[in-house]
Amino acid sequence: MKNIFFYLIFLLIVLPTSCKKQSNDAIDDKPDEETPIVGSENAVFTPMSGTPGDIIQVKARFKADKSLWTGKLGDKSMQLSRLNDSIAYFVVPVVSPGKVNLNLSEAGLKESIFTVDTYQAITDPTPAVSSFSNTLETLITSLHEEDATLKTNMNLLMEAFHKKYAELPPSEKIALAYCLNGITKNLQAGPQAGSNKLLSASSSASLQSRLLKSSSFAWLDVPGSIESQAEYREAILASGALLVFSLSTLVVGAELFAAPTGWTQVGGLALLASSLYSFSKFLKYKSVMFRYNGKAITIFMPSASNKMRLMSTTTSNSAGLTFVQDTLYALRPTVGYETLTTADKNSNNMVFSRLISRMEEAGGLYNKGIDFLNGVSSWFSAKPSLTKFTLGLPASSPVQNRTSPGSLLRVEAVSDSRINIQVTPLDDGISVKASSTEVDTIVPLTFRLAYKEPDLGIDIHTVVNATYDGRPRPHQLDKVSGDKQTTTPGQKLKEPLKIKVTDENGKILAGVDVEWKIKSGGGSLSNTQRKTNAQGIASAEWTPGSTGDQEVSVLVNTIAGTPVRNAPLVFTAQGVTIIGKWKATELYHDWYDGDIDVSGRQMLGYHVAYTRESTKHDCTDHDKIEERTDAYELEFKENNTANFREKGFYRYQTACSTVPPIEENYDDTTSSSYTLRPDNVLVIDIEGDEMNFKILKLTSDELIIETFQGDYMKLVLKRN
């Protein structure tokens, strides 16, 4: 957009209040150095068609020795008026519709073909004059009290217009009517009703399309003050549009007014009246706009330590700025602003350079118009009070440092393509968040922080030197599943233990170190995941121990080495303890006699009789034994002691003996100690005699044990 005011010039010279046809054709925006040389057939005409009264812009490289050339459109003479070295224009005369030869050889241009569009011929000029007059009267009425001088001057010009129009012969009134239609059409267009702003600061449309939609700027209401950069941008664009709007009417009006007699003088008077309105509004905008320093010239980056979340200290040093992954930071750079100065005429910023050039051009034409009006003072009932234009720009400007709206700030040229920087505009800066799916370490990072106002041709930037810390930042540890399961000693839990690690924003984190540890109860862990997966999950399988509280702890630390929130987590298993009273429902022995095999036989509640070889050396008979176990009960206590109760019947008859048999119904209780080993072995010590039982099953209501050394014994017990 470096040639933005060529957009304004080219657009509004073919759209102005004078004798002009509305056009949505694309606007040529080639820089001056590419302007065709005199005599080149590539001179640009915009538009290449029109109707009588339309102004046609011509872009070429003109000589500076003349301001006016005579040309012909068909058989009708017309004048080519030069605005500057590269822009001139002519008014389409009344010729028949169709393709017509355009001869501007006096200006050094080759002959071209111009299309005169179909139009409604004017036979009665009265409607055109009335419409123009009513429109100007409406504009005059709309002026505020502080515009009293402008109102008086416009009334005087309109009074003179009606006076001079009445003196024209009918044919010249009709010629004038074509021009008045063009003026009126554009005076009646304007910003949308109810809007005091010409351009919307949030508009994303191109300047060209916005100006085309606005069409005319005659209705623009100039604000009393400018309070923000957005308003300043609107003021520059609106004042520039008013300026160019005035330029076209002033230059055409001045040339028409300079004609010896006839309708052209009256048409020039009408154009000068229109330009007086728009140029006065430009001058009002200028007086308001230049009180606000709004041209951005430099950016100062804020400084920050790693601990700062909001960075607003003004300094030119941005070293030490660290962006932690997925953490929001507010960057509030200070932008230096200054106002327009006379030096900007030669600056590289084409917007401001050409604005000043157009101000000088328009001012010269405006002053020329004043001279013309002063020369025909007899036309007026009172002399118009018109003050000549002076540029009035300072040679230099103080710089104001202030924050700028985030809508004008951009982050560009990020040095590491693996890192994505998201930017959200703030009222006084931008919110920045850096993230990466590939970088999980600390790496250097640079980017360009740019301030861009393409409408004003401003593009300044500063390079930010920073670092990016992509290390996962664990903040919280949570259980996913596996807690408080019911355990059987020696058996792996049905579900694995699962945890999840997230950062401060709740985002799951992969690759985080996880420490698993048996806290109490013995047992073991297997298939342990010591880093979180892509879902932020880590798991372990747990085989609880046989006694006591069953607990597993899980620890995750922050980057600083301190536990994250909720850490350490503790998983518990609802352990089934052996402690308590148990009563046998089944009892199996592995005793064998040559005649009777009771191996693996259910003994509880059954009467068993068997024999055994006599221990007497001179007896060949067998001892006779009978027994029955009616009850078998165990009680395990927390202090690792146990009580055993056995109730039943026993009878023993010794062979080769006259002694009566031993016979008793017994109910005995014995105390002992026990140990429950981690390998799920129950060791019972009865007066120094150890019995080793393997725990086959332990639930809340059932215990099954069996010996695996010495005589076989198996017990099935229910909790009593």
TrEMBL record:
Residues 470-482 have a biased composition (Basic and acidic residues). It comes from the Bacteria. Residues 496-558 form the Big-1 domain. Residues 469-491 are annotated as: Disordered. Pfam families: Big_1 (PF02369). InterPro entries: Big_1_dom (IPR003344), Ig-like_fold (IPR013783), Invasin/intimin_cell_adhesion (IPR008964). Gene3D superfamilies: Immunoglobulins. Belongs to the intimin/invasin family. This is Big-1 domain-containing protein. It comes from Sphingobacterium pedocola.
